[in-house]
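Q: I'm writing a short explainer about DOPA 4,5-dioxygenase for a general audience and would like to include a description of its predicted shape. Could you first generate the structure from this sequence?
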Amino acid sequence: MADRFAALKPYFPKLGSPQTSNPDKTELSYEPCPNGDGKSVYNPPREGRSHHYEALYKGEKEGSGEKPWWDFHVYHLPLNPNHVKYAQELYEAVRREFPELRVYRPLGPHPIPMFEVNVFNPLQLGALMSWFVQNRGPCSVLIHPNTGDDVKDHTTNGTWLGEKVPLDVDLLRAVDAMQAEKKEGQ
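A: Of course. Here's the predicted structure. Afterward I'll give you a sentence or two in plain language.
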C-alpha cells in the first residue's frame, strides 16, 4: 500500500529526537520487569543518575538563583467571588509553604488575573508541581521553562494543571522583536 502522506512529508517540520544523557544505545527489551507489577517493563541499570535530577531545561545547571528556571502562573476567574477568595488564600498558602521561592504580587499582562511563582532547581519544581496538583482548587496553573523564547515558553513549552487559559502572546512577540532589534543594533 502506498504511503498516502509521502507527498506531504517534505513540508512537515522536523521534530528531532528526545534528549537522553545515557550513552547506552543497546536495544531495549519489552519483557515484563521481574520485580514489577506485571505491566511494567524491565529497564536496564545505568551508571549514575540522569543529569535531569540536578539540571533543568536542556541540561542547564543550577545557577546563582537570580534567573528562574521555571515559572508557575496561577489564574482565577475574576467575576466569581469564590474563585477570587480561593486564589487569595492560595497565594498566601504558597508564600507560607514555600518561603524560599520568588512569589510576585498579582500581575499582567494576562487575560485574567494571576500571580506568578518562580522556581530555581529541580527539587523546587517537583515539590511545587506536586503541591499545586493537590491544592490548586478551581485555579488553572501554567507551568513553563524560561529558555529565552517567551512566546514558545508560554505556548509550545508550557503545560497546564486544570483548564487551559487562552493567552494573547502578541505582547510577548512584541517584546521579543524589540530585544532582537536591540541585539542587532549593538
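A: For your explainer, you could say: The longest helix spans residues 81-97.
Q: Perfect, that's easy to follow.
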